[in-house]
């Protein structure tokens, strides 16, 4: 993991002045991450979200990487590549914290690290196959909010690669994203490889929108652009999860960030419209709308704050409703609100990454030592308590945001994080909802180190195939150690002295 440094960035005593001098372009760091990403792409052919009927490997001479020892080797290569990407990201972060590089090297690094993953099998997830299956349903006149892709009697490759859990489960995504998925499937048909690649290309529009908004958000929110880009664009959560996955959150984040920017720049109509469109891709974006109302209210003239709030609220609702109705109608051909019931589908996922679920499982295991009981009542009660806590927390954050401005953006960001953590399910890439907004604020190095630990941890707690690893306790222990070591490496190169000991073995021989 993150242990060594480029020579130009290694801190030592008496070099405080040198730390203020711009560094050379970090070619080696970027190259390391690119090699790591290439290894991820190659190894994913055997260890990632592979196809059931693989036209690339199939039963040919290279098919051995999908089975037995071949698959073990593929996993070893994949995790090596992952380690190199994280190592490079942390090294780049040390440059950023020292103020020795600007934004350009970070953008180049993120682009180089993403490029090999454009043609990679899905990494740490199989959700993209569900996207294609649900788009195929809409393409062939079926309602994705009524049934799962298993009802399709066409495009067998699309259907069979959807995860068994989602074969008969209604879609939980917004209608506009289903329209996008429909367009992808209409172009690629039953070709799953082209479907995954085209989906990534389409989602790059979301990345472009986020990249456009971040520099402007930083100016309003007081952060540093290199830090924001390093945290939001070059991180493993973005490179490996949102793009390598890929996940539709990448598209939603573009509308969310640009909408929040519009609110800060007093373009309130644009803000409400854009965030509503983001909600039509993934409903999570709606969390930001009440905070945008406060921002609008505080930009209105007039002595009565109550009246300003009512005016802003009424105008926001007046914009939200027609955009919501029009977006749904254009996407589905009718005012189909079945996607609200589809939001229950992800709750089928139960693991301790969601804190309330984890608490419920702990209590279940304690009681189960004495009495033979079922786990579901414990998890259900804990999740209900978590929802009450989330509602209380969200209402408090919304009330604290009543001054509008940057405070409202900050409160919206931590509310998005709270939703990701407390509302079932908690999936690793959900944390990007809040991190992308919060990246534009000023960060302390120790807080960035915490983000490094979280980023590495949540990326690794699922196996490369997309199946959860959360109950493989020895594996999770290794993940925790790797996460903590990566975090420590951001603040101090080679925190355990491993590389130094390797480079100078003669010192130990003399001692």
TrEMBL record:
<dbReference type="Pfam" id="PF26314">
    <property type="entry name" value="MptA_B_family"/>
</dbReference>
<keyword id="KW-1133">Transmembrane helix</keyword>
<keyword id="KW-0808">Transferase</keyword>
<feature type="transmembrane region" description="Helical">
    <location>
        <begin position="377"/>
        <end position="396"/>
    </location>
</feature>
<feature type="transmembrane region" description="Helical">
    <location>
        <begin position="470"/>
        <end position="488"/>
    </location>
</feature>
<keyword id="KW-0812">Transmembrane</keyword>
<feature type="transmembrane region" description="Helical">
    <location>
        <begin position="105"/>
        <end position="124"/>
    </location>
</feature>
<feature type="transmembrane region" description="Helical">
    <location>
        <begin position="72"/>
        <end position="93"/>
    </location>
</feature>
<feature type="transmembrane region" description="Helical">
    <location>
        <begin position="272"/>
        <end position="297"/>
    </location>
</feature>
<feature type="transmembrane region" description="Helical">
    <location>
        <begin position="30"/>
        <end position="52"/>
    </location>
</feature>
<feature type="transmembrane region" description="Helical">
    <location>
        <begin position="225"/>
        <end position="244"/>
    </location>
</feature>
<protein>
    <submittedName>
        <fullName>Polyprenol phosphomannose-dependent alpha 1,6 mannosyltransferase MptB</fullName>
    </submittedName>
</protein>
<feature type="transmembrane region" description="Helical">
    <location>
        <begin position="408"/>
        <end position="427"/>
    </location>
</feature>
<comment type="similarity">
    <text>Belongs to the MptA/B family.</text>
</comment>
<feature type="transmembrane region" description="Helical">
    <location>
        <begin position="352"/>
        <end position="371"/>
    </location>
</feature>
<feature type="transmembrane region" description="Helical">
    <location>
        <begin position="192"/>
        <end position="213"/>
    </location>
</feature>
<keyword id="KW-0328">Glycosyltransferase</keyword>
<dbReference type="InterPro" id="IPR049829">
    <property type="entry name" value="MptA/B-like"/>
</dbReference>
<keyword id="KW-0472">Membrane</keyword>
<dbReference type="GO" id="GO:0016757">
    <property type="term" value="F:glycosyltransferase activity"/>
</dbReference>
<feature type="transmembrane region" description="Helical">
    <location>
        <begin position="447"/>
        <end position="463"/>
    </location>
</feature>
<feature type="transmembrane region" description="Helical">
    <location>
        <begin position="317"/>
        <end position="340"/>
    </location>
</feature>
